[in-house]
Structure formats: structure tokens, C-alpha cells
């Protein structure tokens, strides 16, 4: 990725952005039958553009065309090498348009443009490319049987898939869904978050240019009642892959139960701990990782470190280091490449986060418009700041007297998405990693793994499958057993 531009250069790009403004159905941008929706810049609440939204009529058409495309095999029956070639071409087009996409993402979501440039876009490209390269490297299986039988276990694409995206990582979550779904041979209908629809529509334009057949990727902007629910209840949708709040995830389980029992995969909320044991080896390094984990992307991250569970003996030094490092975390204009924290997504979310900004903050505690400063509170375990998913730049600190107490408190939550453990003793660290009930546990760092590792949670953080890695392909395929009797029928007994 090339060097960052200046603020003025990013502002200039933003002024000249001309995104698609309507649903993408069957290879065309078509005016939707829903109302026009204003796309607002979260940092200043100004209108970027208006887009035409979809409704139930558009949902029916998109599903019909997705089903038609899947059944006739224009994508699913292409040889793996051909599907791979088209997805690699898409990656090249995204690379060519990376700056436009980064700026579009920044002004649509409030994310710092530096994160869009240096993290989101590169990881999006890597994700699609990784799944594209996996297409012709996933093999079927043969079960061990007696000599007179043969069983072949094959993967087949599940069919018509719906991907429901969150607003905090519009492009990256798009890649997490379409990469393995398209690699598997599915048709996929994407419902972007209503706050952040622009980049998904742009990627649809690039997908068409890459040679992806019509009907295979479709984008339906709109709200939950108008688009999300009709897709979730549709009798000809085979599965839903959802990333977002636990509350909304429950609705998709309900929609499935009340319609055709479509497969549902949920990646939901988190209340993720960083556990700092009494023998932490490098407090400076731990502080760096905790600051990044807590405040990157304004804390609008399901895997954000929102709880710091720290042993009494190292708490003071660790907090001093964290406070020192926060001086470099500048809050402000997302198009300024020096900005580390941009704007919260919308006024509704600002209001929700502000309810947690009480008196007594060790650091921060301020909100100005859509901008919340990095904030730290020392709390008791039962404090709502320590129990509820805030989805903002607020870190709760809980002091403990023993490592066993730290593990117990880490697990005392309805969530189980990610966790971090900091210790100078690898045996202690590994023991803690095994005992913490979470889908990803990082040791002496903050991290979600890589594109090659599965991502998802335990308990109310996840359901039905995993994103990323080869395990993501399991979501979008069905297993079929083909049983062959090798006995010669001529010699068979009557």
C-alpha cells in the first residue's frame, strides 16, 4: 500500500466521489421501490448523497434472479480455476480503486482514513484473494469402508445466501462474506447496514466489471423491516450469514424458524477481556496492545478490549503506561491522516454511548458532537460499564487479587468472542487461554488472528459457524454422501 496522502488530498478525493445510488439486481443498478435515503457523513452530519432503497418487491426480484443464476449453473458449475480467475480480477480492480474506496468508507462511516487505507482495504483484498486461491485446493473425501463399498463425501454450494453486514467494518465484513460464499459457488445477496451502503454498491460495480455473472452478487440497501426481515423470511433463501448485534441476530433465528428453517450463522456482540496476570513480562508492550484493542475504530468493534482485568500488583504501572500512550491517540476529522479516532456512526449511537460517560473517569469522559475521547473508568465487576456492550471508546478496569479470580471474572459474561492474556510464563498463559470461554484468545498481544484462522464466538457472541479461514467455507456448503455398492449384481444372492 502506498504512503498516506495529506488531509487536503483526501478532502479533494471526497469532493469528487460519485458512488452508485441504487440497488444492484441481476447485473444492473435499478431504482428501488423503497424511499430515498440520505447518506450522512457522521463527522459533520452533512449529506453525502441520496440513494434509492429496496423493499419487499425488490427482495423478491433479487431472490428470483439469484435462484435462477444458481440453478442454471452460470457460476456454481464453472470450473474452480475460472471462478478463481474472476475473483482475482476483482481484487485487482479493488486495488486500482483503493483510494476512492478508502475515502468513501471514511466519509460514510466516520472511520479514520488512515485505518481504511492501511488496514481495511488491504485486509479486504487479502481476504477475497485468499478464498479465491482456496477454490481449487479444497478436496472431497472418501470414508474408510469395507472392500465392497465406496463412499464419497462431497461439498456442494448451499444455494442462495443472504449476507447482512454491520456498519463498523463495511468493506471488510463484505469480504468476509462474499469471499467464501463466491468461492463455494453460491449466489449471494448483500444487505449492507443502512448507515453504510456506499462502498458495497461500488464493489458490485467492480464485480460486474471483473466478469462475475449477473445474479451472482446483488446489493440491496435499505432498513431492517423493509429489506432484512423479508430476506430473513424468504422461502427461497437457503442461508443467512449475519454480523451485528445479538438482539438483531435473535430476530434472524426467529425468521428462519417461522419460514423454511434456512441455515443461520451469527457473529454477534462481545465484552472482551484483557487479562493481565501478576507476572506480566513487558508492561510497556501490554499497554500498547490494550490501547489499540480498546480504542481502535473508536471502540466500535465487536472484538474490542472493553474490560481490563488486572492484578493489583501491576495495575498502577500499567495504567500509567496506558495514560502515557493515549497522548498519541488524536480524536478528530476522519480525513486527517493524523487522526486515530474518528466519529461515532450516528446520533442514535452517540446518545447510547454518552449514557456511559459518567463522572470519575481516569482518562477522558468527554463527548463533543460525534466525537468521544478515549475514556477509562475503574469499576466494580457488577458495574454496567463492565457488563454491557458499549461499542464505544470506553475501557473498564477491574482490579483482582489472584490469577484465578481474573479468569473467573473474564468468564462471567454472556459473551465469548475474544480475549487477551498477558503473562511472562507461557504455561500460565496457555492455561488461562484454555480456561477462558472465547472463540479467539491472544497471548501477550491483541489480535483476531489472520485471514487463515476462524473467527467467531462462544455463548451469545456466535452461532452456527465461523468467518475467515477454511472453516468459513463450511457455512456456504452442504455435505453430501454418495454411496456406491461395489458388489457384482450378477453374483448377488436372490
Task: Give descriptors for this structure.
494 residues; alpha/beta; Aldehyde Dehydrogenase, Chain A, domain 1; 16 helices; Aldehyde Dehydrogenase, Chain A, domain 2; 38% helix; 6-stranded mixed beta sheet
Low-confidence parts lasting 5 or more residues at pLDDT below 50? none
How many helices in DSSP terms? 16
Strand order of the largest sheet: 9-8-7-10-11-22
Mean pLDDT: 96
Label the overall shape. globular
How helical, in percent, are the residues? 25-40%
Number of domains: 2
In CATH's first tier, which class of the largest domain applies? Alpha Beta
**Which architecture of the largest domain per CATH?**
3-Layer(aba) Sandwich
**Radius of gyration computed on alpha carbons:** 24 Å
Largest sheet: 6 strands, mixed
- How many beta strands in the DSSP annotation? 23
Give the structural class: alpha/beta
Beta-strand percent range? 15-25%
